[in-house]
Amino acid sequence: MAVSKHGGAAKKKAAKKAARKSASFETRASLAPQDEGIGVARAPQDEGIGVAAAPQGERGGADREITKDAIFHYVYGVLHDPVYREKYALNLKREFPRIPFYPDFWQWADWGEALMKLHIGYESVEPWPLERIDTKDEKAARTGAKLKPVLKSDKDTGVIRLDSETQLTVVPKEAWTYVLGNRCALDWILDQYKEKTPKDPTIREKFNTYRFADYKEKVVDLLMRVTRVSVETMKIVEAMRVVPRS
Question: 43, 176, 183, 220: which could join 49 in a potential S-S bond, CB 3.0 to 4.6 Å?
């Protein structure tokens, strides 16, 4: 099949332009001034990342490979940065986040990795030692009625009331400050385990079988673990607040 001279020339021109662009990037990366704190890290080619320049902070960068996981951890860490979230609060509500490139890439990547381990593995972390107080509900015991679910928290006193008999106390203040959306993680759990009456009469009669009492011990354990996650998360977040960003 014949190829026009014009089409062949256009393809050659595009190929040369792509080659020059690639060579230019390679040269800029390899000649980055060392006193600028820029280290060159070559990611494995099967990661589809190629050559990337990473800032060297106190944790170093030249001897570590920038992988897709490292980039994901960095982004996850930056999205928890309290200074970034406060400064761009309005923007984050109406558009996709724009991720800044902080001087110490690996510090933020390590923070992001630590946060991910906490948030993904929340069911396996060590439970926080909340104090459980069980006070017998005399009225329920006397009438044979079931315990009344409460599932409410009081941030001022650090108390979580589960039902008419059980409450968890000594909830640390830091646990209330880890917010997901418009409320803290502990309140999300309490809301998810509340007994709710379906409006549809058929569903209410035949399928409304959930009872908090059946999951009470599971919720106690979950609240203790999420308290641990919340406290550890806020430790990392507060450490972020004081590091330089330029």
Answer: 43
Predicted confidence (pLDDT) per residue in 188-239, tens digit: 999 999 999 888 989 988 898 999 999 999 999 999 999 999 999 999 999 9
The pLDDT value recorded for residue 191 is: 96
Question: Is residue 14 situated within a structural domain?
Answer: no
Alpha helices, H only, the chain: 5-30, 68-78, 82-87, 89-94, 105-120, 138-143, 173-177, 185-192, 201-206, 216-241
CA distance 111 to 104: 11
85 within domain boundaries: yes
Which range marks the domain in which residue 73 is found? Answer: 35-120
Sequence-separated (6 or more) residues with CB below 8 Å from residue 85: 79, 92
Angle formed by the axes of helices 185-192 and 216-241, to 10°?
160
CA-angle at 120, arms to 118 and 126, nearest 5° = 45
Which two tokens mark 125? 């972390």
Please give the single-letter amino acid code of residue 153: S
Contacts of 42 (CB under 8 A, 6+ apart): 51, 52, 65
What pLDDT digit, counting tens, does each position of 97-123 carry?
A: 999 999 999 999 999 999 999 999 999
What's the token pair of residue 184?
Answer: 């803290």
Task: State if pTM tops 0.85.
Answer: no
Rounded Cα gap, residues 53 and 39, in angstroms: 6
Same domain, yes or no: 107 and 156: no
Structural domain count of the chain: 2
- Taking residue 121's Cβ as centre, other Cβ atoms within 10 Å add up to 11
